[in-house]
Write a structure and sequence with these properties.
A: alpha+beta, 31 strands, 16% strand
Chain lengths: 816, 59
């Protein structure tokens, strides 16, 4: 919300052209992205002669250069209080967004969008720790989140946020505090269970050699010791199974937790009785190890899922928590009312629908029309929540808030479509319930029958049934496979946002691609220039670059890059004027030049951009370039037997040309979002399972209609909100890999379930007949679960590793 | 036998110690940011006096 300093920084760079291709950040060496900025000091030198321009990749590296080597910058950046008051951060209402920390103070999660590379994390941590060494700061670079533990009494949040702002990292508060780190309690439980299991095994070892000359008293002594050491494992570490079982029983759906709890209780009580009677039938070590193995599996899965959830939460956070009033000061969203005047600076998102009050402002409505360019709006024009300010200061009067905004209505519409999805998780839960009930019923029958035949063996046999039938294999089969699949996919830069996404991806039999932004992209190499009159190609590009300075139009960047590549002469444009929906015009060397749609120059409408001036004109044609890995992805999908299809809003000619190039036989062009959604639904009605790839917000509705919705990482937040899967690095090769991994994991999960069932079907009757003693039952159970785990681990070797071409995933995987 | 009678209390004591140490570590945020820790050795602690060099590109 306090993007003002980012604004300052951006202004520094607007007067410059864009970096030449292949330039890297001088600070961290990363490739330059959309946030790239020219260093101010070195910029001055470029006026001289041959000094090479130096670029930084992000606000963070700029701030780092300033922080560490201010002498390099002729005019040190000064982000200090540029008229913004951070007092709003200290209001009592904000405490609702904070969690009390276990070790005192409060924890707050902030979204810091400017975080780009490990340097950013370092800089943030260093500068905050300078304020107070007691602060606990952790920056999650892939998530661009900052977790801050602080004491409001000593360091007010406003001071910390102001400090962040000062070094160029405006922070936003995240709604609904959530914790994505490992839960402290489960870590402790796991550790206690593991330690107790090891020690119980040590103490129990003499019992396994009881045929030797160990005196009975010594054996008894060790049995008591292993009972003692198992106590913390069952009462502390195992407590979650008992709470889980209680919850399941309260809902009337006993499942795995109930069975685990029952086995633990019976095994413990049974062993306890055995201990008192002085028999050798004690299984305390098995109990502790059982708890440890179960907890380990759960922690693995919970860790992976929590990360994915935090990611989605971070992405869903479209709206800032506070708004800046035009009259100055900050106010919480829920306290705003109709007629209030709000202010937003470039880079910020509007938080309410309203009427524009400032004279003019350039807004990006990508939230609504997906692929559209930023548009210039004049005073009195309606503006919508979710639009972001591209340039100018936007002052607007509120006409609709919260649930009544257009954005909320679109979001609701796509949520309703999404609600029609079938959850396959329910099936698994039902299966677990049935298994549990069956085993319990069998155990009861066994104990009754054996009580009648041989009362002295009843307990041992019942325990054998419960132990041998332990859902260990069943309990591990699914979560372990799933956790491993998630981990493998993360390495590829794929994030699953829905718990049941894997099962659905494995079913996919056709993939629908959106075109622009998904299969194709536009860059400098794709600009084709045709000139008339005395104008040279190089000058045409130079003039276009001069006119587009500071523009955020999607074509401006490729144009400027093409001009850099052609080493065009530098022109200076004055009196530049943006013509809404048409283009831009300005005066260069005393002559008026226009750049924009053909209509701007009085020509017939065509698919190109025209530059026209005195006695000369140029036509720029933009060839869309294929997205990274598109060809490989399509052919790999074909090998997997998956049908491919293009659905696009673009013209027939362009769509068909692309389809021919990629070898996609089926294509639909000039589709509205509703038509895209209808196409997806038609597939589903025909019994197929379509996967839809898209990025625009218009796709949100279409995405929700598909069986699996995949969103590209650069997509905007609303589309991501309804995606099942995120591709972080825009590499389409991840799509076939994703489907392959999902199928593999479903196959392995199925094998594991099959094994677990076969094992149970054979072992339980044998145990019930008294053929398997409790010790061998425990051995069988352990072997079975080991087999299941090893089978699941095969997944790690079967999935491709993230290779060298995935440059942008470096930051996310290296740190995760 | 006497050796066992001595060693068993010691082992129990060690377990209590280990659990206490682990709980202390968890409570003192030692497991909060497992990703960042691996990057700390790459960072320079003298960054204030010298200009930051080109970061290792293949980190």
């Amino acid at each position: 919300m306090t993007a003002a300093s980012a604004h300052v920084v951006r202004e520094l760079s607007t007067a410059t052209s864009l970096p030449a291709l292949g330039t890297c950040c001088v600070h961290c060496g990363e490739a330059l992205g959309a946030q790239a900025q020219l260093l101010p000091a070195l910029q001055d030198q470029t006026n001289g002669s041959e000094a090479t321009p130096a670029w930084v990749c992000c606000v963070g590296c700029l701030a780092a250069m300033n922080f560490a080597a201010p002498e390099l910058l002729s005019t040190p950046l000064n982000h200090s209080d540029d008229g913004h008051n951070f007092a709003g951060w200290d209001r009592a209402e904000l405490m609702a967004h904070m969690q009390p920390a276990e070790s005192g103070g409060y924890v707050v999660n902030l979204a810091v969008d400017a975080v780009h590379c490990p340097n950013c994390a370092w800089l943030i941590e260093l500068s905050l720790q300078r304020i107070s060494p007691d602060l606990r700061v952790s920056v999650d670079v892939p998530l661009r989140m900052l977790r801050l533990q602080f004491d409001p009494a000593q360091q007010p949040l406003s001071k910390l946020v102001a400090a962040l702002n000062q070094i160029g990292y405006p922070a936003r508060l995240i709604h609904g505090a959530s914790d994505h780190k490992l839960s402290n309690k489960s870590l402790k439980q796991l550790f206690v269970a593991g330690l107790c299991a090891l020690q119980a095994m040590m103490f129990a070892e003499p019992l396994y050699w009881s045929n030797s000359d160990l005196p009975l008293q010594t054996a008894q002594f060790f049995a008591w010791l292993s009972a003692l050491i198992t106590l913390p494992a069952i009462s502390y570490s195992g407590s979650r199974f008992f709470t889980g079982a209680r919850n399941e029983l309260r809902l009337g759906r006993p499942a795995i937790d109930s069975l685990i709890a029952l086995s633990l209780l019976l095994a413990f009580i049974g062993s306890g009785i055995g201990l008192l009677r002085g028999s050798q039938a004690v299984y305390f070590d098995a109990i502790a190890m059982f708890i440890f193995v179960l907890l380990l599996g759960r922690l693995l899965e919970a860790n992976v899922m929590a990360k994915a959830r935090a990611f989605s939460m971070r992405l869903q956070d479209v709206m800032p928590a506070m708004a800046r009033l035009a009259s100055g000061g900050l106010r919480e969203l829920h306290k705003l009312k109709f007629g209030d005047c709000l202010q937003a600076v470039p880079g910020e998102v509007l938080i309410a629908d309203g009427v524009l009050q400032s004279a003019s402002c350039v807004l990006s409505n990508a939230m609504f029309d997906g692929e559209a360019a930023p548009t210039l709006l004049l005073q009195g024009a309606p503006v919508f929540a979710g639009a972001s300010v591209a340039s100018g200061i936007c002052v607007y009067q509120i006409t609709a808030l919260g649930e009544n905004t257009q954005l909320a209505q679109i979001a609701r519409a796509s949520q309703q479509t999404a609600a029609a999805q079938n959850p396959s998780a329910a099936e698994t839960a039902l299966m677990a319930t049935r298994f549990t009930l069956a085993v319990m019923a069998l155990a009861i029958c066994t104990s009754i029958v054996w009580w009648l035949i041989a009362p002295e063996r009843a307990l041992a046999v019942t325990l054998s049934v419960l132990t041998v039938a332990c859902p260990c294999a069943l309990g591990l089969a699914l979560p372990l496979t799933r956790a491993l699949a998630h981990a493998c996919l993360q390495r590829l830069g794929v994030i699953l946002l829905q718990p049941d996404a894997l099962d659905r991806i494995a079913q996919v039999d056709c993939v629908m691609f959106d075109k622009t932004g998904t299969l194709t992209m536009i860059d400098a190499k794709s600009v084709r220039v045709a000139t008339t009159g005395s104008l040279s190609t190089s000058d045409a590009l130079g003039i276009a670059r001069a006119l587009e300075v500071g523009s955020t139009h999607p074509l401006a960047r490729p144009l400027s890059q093409a001009a850099d590549a052609a080493q065009s002469a530098q022109f200076m444009a004055s009196a530049v004027e943006h013509l809404p929906g048409l283009g831009v015009r300005g005066v260069i060397n005393g002559a008026l030049w226009r750049l924009g749609k053909p209509a701007l120059s009085g020509l017939a409408d065509a698919d190109c951009v025209v530059l026209s001036g005195p006695q000369a004109s140029a036509t720029f044609d933009f060839q869309e370039r294929l997205q990274q890995g598109a060809i490989e992805a399509v052919s790999a999908l074909k090998r997997l037997g998956i049908a491919t299809q293009i659905v696009s809003g673009d013209s027939q000619a362009r769509v068909q040309a692309l389809a021919t190039r990629l070898g996609i036989s089926r294509q639909d062009y000039r589709c509205t979002p509703t038509e895209k959604s209808a196409l997806a639904k038609a597939h589903r009605a025909a019994g197929r399972f379509p996967m839809m790839l898209g990025d625009g917000v218009n796709d949100a509705i279409a995405l929700a209609g598909a069986h699996v919705a995949v969103s590209l990482g650069a997509a905007n937040p609303l589309a991501r909100m309804h995606a099942d899967v995120l591709l972080l690095n825009d590499d389409l090769k991840a799509v076939p890999a994703l489907i392959r991994t999902a199928r593999q994991s479903v196959i392995i999960a199925r094998q594991n379930l099959l094994w677990a069932r076969a094992y149970n079907v054979v072992a339980i009757p044998l145990a019930a007949l008294g053929c398997i003693g409790p010790v061998w039952a425990a051995v069988g159970m352990a072997a079975s679960s080991l087999l299941v785990s090893l089978n699941a681990a095969r997944l790690l070797h079967k999935t491709p590793k993230a290779g060298a071409p995935l440059a942008s995933v470096k930051a996310s995987t290296a740190l995760s | 036998m006497n050796a066992i009678l001595l060693l068993i209390p010691i082992s129990l004591l060690l377990i209590v110690l280990a659990i206490w140490a682990f709980f202390w570590a968890v409570d003192h945020a030692q497991f909060d940011a497992l990703e960042r820790a691996s990057l700390v050795p790459l960072e320079r602690d003298d960054a204030e006096s010298t200009p930051p060099p080109a970061h290792t590109r293949d980190d």
